[in-house]
Amino acid sequence: MNRPIRDLDVLISTMQPELHEGVYCFATVNAAAAAQLSAAEIVASIVEAEGLSVVVREETALKHGLSADFRAARITLTVHSDLAAVGLTAAFAAALGQAGISCNVVAGNCHDHIFVPYDTAEQAMGVLRALQQNAAKAV
Fold first, then answer.
1. What are the tens digits of pLDDT across the range 79-95?
2. Domains and CATH numbers, the chain
């Protein structure tokens, strides 16, 4: 595994966004519904006062009868970002925000995963690629 990158200019100029196929759904599930989901079916999760918030593929949501509160496209920044790096989330969130695209971010140990409204996926990829290209010119 590569060493995580902390330098913001390097992170942005090498972030390499990758769009995953399919639709991802955000849902809140109670303990009984959570017990029916396998770990392999959950893309991301966090415990909240209202229940377990999960991100699952749309097929999984349908299979388990989950109410999708948000249908999203998933974009992974393939650069190995350091969890202590400062400014990466702010940079891509600002760029997406200026384009009128909301984003929800899940940071894994190695990569950042951005969930945008499904119908804005291609536009979001264009914004992220432009951000990366502009940063690469400056480095």
1. 999 999 999 999 999 99
2. 8-138 (3.30.2130.10)
